[in-house]
Design goal:
2 domains; SBP_5_dom; disordered C terminus; Dipeptide-binding Protein, domain 3; D-Maltodextrin-Binding Protein, domain 2; 4-stranded mixed beta sheet; alpha+beta; ABC transporter substrate-binding protein
């Protein structure tokens, strides 16, 4: 769900690199963009402080990293907590985060991390290996704490902290994501006081203690999340005096606020909004290849690990011929041309083409193309024939009709829903487009037939694949699992286990492609598009900012905190260097990995974007 979407998406989401040891990382802010002749710093306050306001359209599901699965929430956590490793802004290879280096044993079953000595929690206490060990052990022992990121520790055998700067993780079997653990490390002295991790949302006490570039200072549901710079951050404090993520239910309202200078940045722009803003003074539009996929998901029959079924998904969707018919009756080219108006690429496999090593395409004989005649034949074969009124009916005589979950804040959902009503209506199928402010509740309850789905995929596809394993199902119908839409397929699980343990890049990529092929053939999901990241910011408020990757990349939903940490206010004359991306943005960060002498080579996997990724 990603999801952006129900998002959990990723479940923010989505890495193989060979590193010859990793030492310290040097990052320098770059400048070089001309300061506007008539800057209009609407975000400057009376006291002279500067606020960077980012419009967001997604609600925070939880401020607890143990529970959060939406892109906006995982973005918050990347800003206030450090992971063991981070990702280079140029090419996403693993670089130091809380850990300065990491080494595997010869059998790759024991990994030793050196935890930096210059990372402090925002309350002044030292961040240590014990904090990391406590975080992982809590996820290993407490099911509630494993809700969002449990897949990363499922293979952990033992985690210890022999010293404040030494973390040791012992594995049951090799795990290719050990330099791509997308798990925020939490301060033990604050979190060990929590009782029930499955219910604790971390939204009552402010400021929130963290060790990232920002400190979370305030939060109001569906209104805003506020941050101040962490002056103790080891890379250096951000240059804006305050960062605000401001919630807008309506995209047009967010764009209007951008025009007025009430916000500094807005994302998820429609083609019409982007075209209009491209002509506006002091506004820069960034249109970059996206990390997301946009899909049509079916309910395969909601179930939990204890074998209990729940929800009210339409039983016709348990028939693969019906699912294939619906996909064959969906015109992806029209969706790209008419809805996204060219700001997207036609969907195929589960991993977007931006990640070429893992991107998969169905073979000609395998591909389900737009073919209404074939769709009609499949429905006939499945036992749903047209009656005299032109309606498809089953053996029970009832007309065939479905519900599809639609995000009320997403204009793409609504537009595509209308097309699908027309296409499927021609086949004799009814479709109710259920546009809701909150799609999470019915989705998690299994109370849907189909849904518009989407996830942000990171360079390493492990997490976004894990959400379709049987292990991701909720323990009971009352629990929340990490599953996207209740898929549980033994063959898929077998392939997932193999790719997790495979360190050879080519072999792992082949396994990941086999997994995508399996998802495609089972027909529970139809990836319709890979949308571009279409976003805009005010140049009279933001002088320089970093895209990821720095050449033609995106700003919102990055694998890291680079955009908002690097942002330079328009009034600041920063002369530390310069650079640019293919979008014309000034790159604010140049990351250089200093290789530590004497450290042997090993394969490091990059991480997922989040359950970003759910967004």
């Amino acid at each position: 769900m990603d999801t952006t979407t129900v998002s959990r998406n990723a479940r923010p989401s989505p890495r193989i690199r060979t590193l010859l040891g990793v030492g310290a990382t040097a990052l320098a802010l770059a400048a070089g963009a001309a300061t506007p002749l008539n800057p209009a710093p609407q975000q400057a306050r009376a006291d002279g402080s500067r606020t960077l306001t980012v419009a967001v359209s997604q609600s925070v599901d939880s401020l607890s990293p143990f529970l959060a699965q939406r892109l906006v929430s995982t973005t918050v956590h990347r800003l206030i907590y450090e992971n063991l490793t981070n990702y280079d802004v140029k090419d996403n290879h693993a670089i130091p985060g809380l850990a300065t280096k990491w080494e595997p044993s010869p059998d790759k079953l024991t990994w030793t991390y050196t935890v930096r000595e210059n990372s402090k929690w925002s309350d002044g206490k030292q961040a240590t290996a014990e904090d990391a060990a406590w975080t992982f052990n809590t996820m290993m022992k407490d099911e509630g704490a494993a809700t969002a990121n449990g897949s990363f520790v499922a293979n952990f055998k033992k985690v210890t902290a022999p010293s404040p700067t030494k973390l040791v993780i012992e594995l049951k079997k090799p795990q290719a994501t050990m330099a791509a653990l997308d798990v925020p490390i939490l301060p033990r002295h604050e979190w060990e006081k929590v009782g029930d991790y499955s219910k604790f949302n971390n939204d009552k006490k402010f400021p929130v203690v963290g060790n990232g570039p920002f400190v979370l200072t305030d939060y109001k549901v569906d209104q805003y999340v506020k941050f101040k710079p962490n002056q103790k951050f080891w890379r250096g404090a951000p240059k804006f005096d305050e960062l605000v993520l401001k919630y807008y239910k309506d995209g047009d309202a967010a764009v209007a606020a951008l025009r007025k200078g009430e916000v500094s940045f807005a994302s998820n722009l429609t083609p019409a909004q982007a075209a209009s803003l491209a002509k506006a003074e002091n506004i820069k539009v960034n249109d970059a290849p996206g990390r997301r996929f946009y899909a049509l998901a079916t309910n395969p029959g909601a179930r939990s690990k204890d074998g209990k079924k729940f929800g009210d998904g339409h039983p016709a969707l348990l028939n693969p011929k019906v699912r294939q018919a619906l996909f064959a009756a969906t015109d992806r080219k029209t969706i790209i041309d008419k809805v996204f108006q060219g700001h997207a690429v036609e969907g195929e496999g589960y991993i977007p083409p931006r990640f070429a090593a893992y991107h998969w395409k169905p073979s000609e004989g395998q591909k389900i193309a737009y073919d209404p005649a074939k769709a009609a034949a499949l429905l006939d074969e499945a036992g749903y024939r047209k009656n005299g009124a032109g309606k498809r009916v089953g053996k029970d005589g009832k007309p065939l009709g479905f519900r599809i979950l639609c995000h009320a804040t997403d204009p793409n959902d609504k537009a595509i829903g209308k097309y699908m009503q027309e296409w499927w209506g021609d086949l004799g199928i009814g479709l109710k487009v259920d546009c809701l402010d909150n799609v999470s509740d019915p989705w998690l309850a299994g109370e849907y037939d189909l849904a518009f789905d989407g996830w942000s995929v990171n360079p390493d596809p492990d997490f976004v694949l894990s959400i379709h394993t049987c292990a991701a199902l909720p323990s009971t119908p009352k629990d929340t699992g990490a599953t996207d839409n209740f898929i549980c397929d033994k063959k898929f699980d077998e392939l997932y286990a193999k790719q997790t343990a495979e360190y050879d890049q080519a072999k792992r990529a082949d396994l990941v492609k086999q997994m995508q092929s399996r998802l495609y053939d089972t027909g529970y999901m139809n990836v319709m598009a890979y949308p571009n990241a279409v976003e805009a910011y005010r140049t009279d408020q933001i002088r320089a900012i970093t895209t990821m990757p720095e050449s033609g990349g995106n700003l919102w939903g990055q694998d890291g905190y680079w955009s908002w940490w690097s942002a330079v206010p328009a009034e600041v004359d920063d002369t530390s260097g310069g650079g640019g991306s293919s979008t014309g943005l000034v790159v604010g960060i140049v990351a250089a990995v200093v290789l530590a002498a004497g450290i042997g080579g090993f394969v490091a996997m990059r991480r997922r974007s989040t359950a970003e990724d759910r967004e």
